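Listing S7. Sequence submitted for prediction.
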Amino acid sequence: MNTRVSFRGLPAYAWWGLVRFGFRLLYNKLAFAYDAVAWLASRGEWWRWQRTALNYLTAPPGATVLELAHGTGELQRVLRRAAYRTVALDLSPAMGRLARRKLHRSHLPAPLVRGRGQALPFADRCFPAVISTFPTEFIVEPETLAEAFRVLSPGGRMIVVFNGVLTGGGAARRALNLAYRVTGQRGPWPDTILSRVEAAGFHARIVIEELPRSAALLLLADKPG
């Protein structure tokens, strides 16, 4: 993490601390407001950014996809409607309650598990795909990457949607770089993301998915077959 970067005069460590505190509240005590805040902050683009993950799924419909940090369950609905089977994990009990209610209302029940990405309660090589959208830094911790590698079947793929930003003209890359400097949800990601992922055994690359009014930044990590 670059502790020299500041925002509006605050030292970097103080800024990131405040932002992380805000996201902890939003993900726990204020979880009921998560969808509304996401929609407002992204001008409605949030769900489009999340859905870009499906463009990179190599597993066919009918396969079972593991989602890490499922949040309010929006991607679960999308995956289920696309004929995927799913299992989802999140540490937040508040998000678990919200996701269960949302999936029940949609008549799309899905197995939701409370747990940590660093210690997945699943067998080796049991999922052809792992997806995580808008995660915090836990997703690139060595323990999480090792667990994702373990539960993926040979030839499986881990897809991470790191963030999304609104863009104008051809400014997608510039806007994404700026987003890294503004919120904890969009960084500060280590400069060594790809080397970390490859050290866990994956073949990895970063992809920018450009949309009409925005862009999303994704990580594709493939487990050798």
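Caption to Listing S7: primary sequence and predicted structure tokens for the chain studied. Residues 1-8, 12-19, 179-188 have pLDDT under 50 and may be disordered. The beta strands are 64-68, 85-90, 112-114, 127-133, 152-166, 203-210, 214-222.
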